[in-house]
């Protein structure tokens, strides 16, 4: 079997790591195509080197652009590559513009498409990721769902026959890197200057357009982080740095200490060293949960609803509207008592993905 993975943005590289490792244990051919959606070394190269992912077989170098231009550029650039490679499966990951481009490029060539992390929904149509997920799920041939909730949502959209529960490959990599970090196999995380490495501190990230692209909202959110009672480590995504610069918003104020985006092992180490996480990232909400740290999510909804159980994750879309002391107690709240549920699988999802792809090849051929 020949499987061609299309990736392009940072979270997809994290998901690719366990999948590439699972393929390496088989006789299957695994081709990696990087669209180039993310191109800064801190968002791309460090994930290949840090997570021991084989270098991409093909790099399309599409770069940044409006959503339409970026998706279109990736679609056009993928067309000849897929036509030449003719894999048994095109495997697309998550919900970025590269995901949708990969799925569309494949169906236009009548190549079978499998969607890893299928069935997540925010039901927020303002999010570009929501369109990308829904459209990808509806054109894919095999839907690899990470959770039972995702299976349920796909069935509700009439996609049950194409759906398989695979488990969450992000749990595979997160738990593996956690074990390595705890075993002292990685140096301590490179935290922004002024953050005490032994804690206590909070780890924050902001990158969603809804939070970064309106100057008044961005200023209010940074103000809320600045008012927190603990130092706040803020590894800043390029979008956040660019928007803050454009709007003349100072990120490094009050409690906030700004740093560069973190490589994956540093991120896992930083979550483990933190007293809690404040974020609008989907992946980081789940990583906090998997690593046993409370998370406060600066969004009105989450796709990872399991993290809300027991109060591990709290949705706080407008922290600046909350009295400052209450906001501080909330973001730095203690971990909920009792055992944490384990809805994201057993850390072996990537191997299951390979088996599900193997099992579905004959069905497609017949
Ligand atoms: C993308 C995904 C989002 C994911 C995020 C992870 C879409 C629609 N969004 O958002 O789901 O959570 O990746 O990081 O696909 N930039 C750089 N260097 C880079 C890449 C981007 O400076 O290597 C800057 C550019 O100014 C660019 C902006 O960041 O315009 C946004 O990049 P883009 O890939 O369009 O979306 P993200 O916000 O990263």
Short synopsis of the structure:
Keywords: Isomerase. The chain is an alpha/beta fold. The chain has 2 domains: 188 residues, Rossmann fold (3-Layer(aba) Sandwich), CATH 3.40.50.2000; 154 residues, Rossmann fold, CATH 3.40.50.
Structural write-up:
Keywords: Isomerase. This is UDP-N-acetylglucosamine 2-epimerase (Non-hydrolyzing). With 366 residues, this protein is of the alpha/beta class. The chain has 14 helices and 13 strands. It has helices spanning 10-24, 45-50, 67-85, 97-108, 128-139, 148-156, 169-182, 209-212, 215-226, 238-247, 264-273, 282-290, 324-331, 349-365; strands at 2-7, 29-34, 58-59, 89-93, 113-116, 142-145, 163-165, 202-205, 232-235, 256-259, 276-279, 295-297, 313-315. It has a seven-stranded parallel beta sheet with strand order 3-2-1-4-5-6-7, sandwiched between helices. Strands 10-9-8-11-12-13 form a six-stranded parallel beta sheet. α1 packs across α14 and α7 (169-182) packs across α12. The mean pLDDT is 96. The structure holds uridine-diphosphate-N-acetylglucosamine. Residues 9-11, 37-40, 43, 64, 70, 95-97, 128-129, 207, 237-239, 242 line the site of uridine-diphosphate-N-acetylglucosamine (UD1). The site of uridine-diphosphate-N-acetylglucosamine has 20 residues, from α1, α5 and α10.
